[in-house]
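Lab meeting minutes (informal)
Scribe: AK
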Amino acid sequence: MDCEIEVNPMASRYRLGIDIGGTFTDATLINEASGEIFVGKVPSTPADPSVGFLEVTERMLRKASVLSEEVEYLVHGTTVATNAIIEKKVAPTGFITTEGFRDLLEIQRQIRPTLYDLHFEKPVPLVPRYHCFGIPERVDAQGTVLLPLGESAVRRVAEQLRDDGVESVAVCLLHSYINPNHEKRVGEILGEVFPGSIVSLSSEVAPEFREYSRASTTVINACIRPIVARY
């Protein structure tokens, strides 16, 4: 037998916010009509964060005597991506850039937080050097192609990354923020040769000038995409 439930438009509606941290999963439930607030937390479940998420959700609904259909808005925050970067537990990632700039992630920028600290060490790149490759191509700052893309070289790199078991690939070519055509073609070739890979193009992730900033942002995106997708 079919039945319909009439919802009183004047009935209370709730907003639920859940944040999954490394130790606890916290929740806040707000009654939009009265402003009443309920808070709670449960231990996080790193092996499967959804377990803690559902547990704290059910606990909050019971605590406030609220039905799930009364929750009109859900906000979810998580430190899964942040923790993966801090703990260096990211997905195996490759890096493709313009030939001659393979060490871009190693060199970084000539800026030190403390100018006279002789013991300062730069952060270790998220992509190891053996997974970084330079390919023949060159575009100038006006977007003019100075050297056509070496597609055969891109294919060889894609094959090597595939054979090395890489999950994700970050692509950052010189001046691609002004002319993204070479990057897009690299992405297409990766899709053909290495169809299982996740590809992040700097011209899509952070289309701004300054190579290292654009490259590092794209690498972070590439490193955590498989982690977040599984999550």
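Next up, CB showed the second protein from the same session:
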Amino acid sequence: WGGFFRHDYIRANHGLIKEAAASGLKFACVGFESVEGSDLKQFNKGNPAAVGAQTYEEEYRFLKSSGVTVFGFIVIGYPGQSQAAAIKTIENAHRFCDYPVVTVYKPLPGTAGYRRTKQDGLLAKDMFYHDSFTVAVRWTRPILAAYNKFFLRYLANPVRLLRILLIPRLRPVETAIITWFGLGLARAN
């Protein structure tokens, strides 16, 4: 079985996570979001003090030592985020997750990010649901270049390709991830 977890929850609840792993927890979808604490603080996305590649790596090592595969949910394209900051987040993903799940920021109604994005005139599409393949913030198009490069490197990564060949149970996971990124590239671009 698997579940969704906040990274700071994992850090605060090692005993519970170990018990979950002993009961059969095999995968964790972890909302890492960004390696930039300022992004998280600005958009109320968790504890900005417990953020960064090093902190995430510690949580990742703990999960791996417990036998848990980690899907890292990563967000790029926060309003005001530089292309360099977006690249830093996705370039570091391999350090803290087995499978990166990268999406471009979507401000949803009722959130601080939505209010700020609308106030700043950056809202490209008013969304009432989470559509990972829609560009909802006007200025994020330049960030897509970083997203595209990351995906192409991900596809060609020799470690990932070897993992598919040697571990047949991972093929459906890899197929799903390739489909996810492929649809994202096609629709967002």
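CB comment: The longest strand covers residues 69-76.
No objections, moving on.
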